[in-house]
User: Fold Mevalonate kinase from Pogona vitticeps.
Amino acid sequence: MEAGDIQGEMLNKTLVVSAPGKVILHGEHAVVHGKAALAVALNLRTFLRMSPRDDGKIFLQLPNIGVKLWWDLVQLQPLLDAFPADRTELKPPTPEQLARLKEFAGTADGPGEIHDVATVAFLYLYLSIAAKSGVLPSVELLVWSELPTGAGLGSSAAYSVCLAAALLSECSVVGYPLGEGQSLARWTEEELDVINKWAFQGEQVIHGNPSGVDNAVGTWGGALRYQSGKITPLKRVPTLRILLTNTKVPRSTKALVAGVREKLLKFPAIMEPVLISIDAISRECEGVLEAMADDSSQGHYSVLEELVDINQHHLDVIGVGHPALDRVCQATAALGLHSKLTGAGGGGCAITLLRPGPPPI
Ligand SMILES: Nc1ncnc2c1ncn2[C@@H]1O[C@H](COP(=O)(O)OP(=O)(O)OP(=O)(O)O)[C@@H](O)[C@H]1O
Ligand SMILES: C[C@@](O)(CCO)CC(=O)[O-]
Ligand SMILES: [Mg+2]
Assistant:
């Protein structure tokens, strides 16, 4: 996996930002309930291009989901009263704010799907960030991704990270990343922290109750352990070869996360031990990866493969499996390989751990 992080580049007043998707090795869903997850940045990215306009309009083009919308800024002005300018610390989006934005999104001009949650996430970040300066910038934004949307690879997080970085730069909350003569740059650690916190807001609009692991990887890149907001970069990680299989079964992370919460409330004594076990799998895997950094003997792979199998069974128990994912697990098992779902599950992508050397197919 190629380490990734947000990159920004200025091309004659046009800002281009990109952020990586992610794969969760272990810990999905458990991480929403305070357990540890291990995640790595993918070499597939989301790109955002923002250019200034001088006609008092704002354009939003989201070709991956067929959205093409524009508004006159005077239409957005009345919404600002729902976005306090003196916002000192980041609070979750309020139901009232989201209701007003969903209603407003219905008034946009343009042929695209106007109710997608991505439009609402954009409006939420745009108004929240612009409210700090009170000036609504007239810009056009195009967001395009290499990532399949809704497939467990962190597409919503990469989308939110790009939006946050671009809008925070436009409103001078963070700097423009590029210095004189530079063609590619990243923001400072402090600025990345601000971008990550705002990206989490975007995830809250899209996901409802995200843990923050996805936007953390989209912001910081590389490989990391994430637990309850604490980001620990994994410094010594061996190169792992991982096969990604997209079942192409559509699903909603928000609905899957809500389903696990319901099950946890219904069967706490049954579900909590499963989440604790997933936490232990994440920690065990981290230890093995550290050991592999010095010694990539095959023995370590056997342990990693066992952890993949145990985690996949736990994910079935908490209700986020899918027959299509089972088929991937069975097909790879027939070749002596080990697979698990990645991300929210219920369809989407599975990961298969490959050993060094030629694949068995
Ligand atoms: N490139 C994009 N352009 C516009 N909207 C996007 C884009 N990528 C993701 N989204 C938004 O994110 C939603 C998918 O988010 P969801 O969290 O369900 O899937 P995911 O992030 O791909 O998977 P996971 O959260 O399991 O990693 C899409 O329906 C859309 O609203
Ligand atoms: C399912 C989940 O754990 C990972 C989704 O990629 C949700 C989250 O942590 O926000
Ligand atoms: Mg997502």
